[in-house]
């Protein structure tokens, strides 16, 4: 079962079931931060993976996270949207012990050797070694709250439960408290996403949690030594835009770590390959176009750099292009010799992303109405750069010869691979193109068509071929006027 599953697996039958058996097994109590430190050190010694699924941070962010964990520091991750902050925070759970003992029925997941509430201390004293022990899986030791303006102190810390008061308990009885998310994640990891969106008066409620490790609920005198790692995420611009992290709270975080987008093209590609759920084959050269496109959008002066361009932009672009290929295969499968199951994306399919993904990009004021035009220009630039990087130095005269004597080659979203290949026939130099693109000696019909269309588009962008898009969605490559 995966670590992120909300339903925990059943504990192994050989785990101690009572406090006496737990002591006899030599179990010792450790705080969450000691547990994280010990397990991180063990993985570092063994060379085992420490943060599964995190791409592009090996030499930058992850060493800082590891230093924070080894130091026992609570941390705040600062970075623009779509930089994997939440993914990184959730991956910390894998550094916890797979199973940890708890007092059976404890709301605060109290350790049998270290009870913190008066009721649990009394229970341990009365039951002694016969105290029933439960076991909590690490997937259930993680709590998370997206900071929203309507978040209350009661949500995070707790409040008086009127139902328990109605049952006859007195107002001073600690049993009348309904604990919030933070204390209920005791002996675990609690994350606050978009911390600056939390109202300042609510942030104040976290001060004691971070420093004194206790909580205060209304007028109750509670000294609960909470045991947890507190992690938060924030966009740096949120300090001045929607809100800010109050200074006393910032001071209590032991580590402030800056995240970033993939630093080079290969890391961007790795991220797309890992995260995109592709419904059709997308050749590597098409993925490279999309990765370059995402990076070009991110660096464009027309795009607001404060909001950033999420890594989800390139991932969604790859999924959209794959969907376009599947759509073509389904529509044309009955009318061509291309099996509908063989759907291969082509570079022309990327045009659709300029309209479907423009909502993911915040443009500078003054660029209103030009969004699709700007994205289209950046996509063409990315295609040309990929063409030069992949096929520079090849003799492509065989492709330019296809349109001599006023002939044209038609392609487009509703032109099958077989139809495209019938138009071009045997092209001198195609084998070398396929080799450069990593497609191999025995390409499928769809793969060969994807290579041909990529060359035609690259030659057009290099001003060696003309191009015309018809009203029916077909693209015609021909000689230059």
UniProtKB/TrEMBL annotation:
Domain Sigma-54 factor interaction positions: 178-236
One Pfam family, short name: Sigma54_activat
Entry-linked PANTHER family: PROTEIN KINASE PRKA (PTHR30267), PROTEIN PRKA (PTHR30267:SF2)
Protein name, UniProt field: Magnesium chelatase
Species for this entry: Micromonospora andamanensis
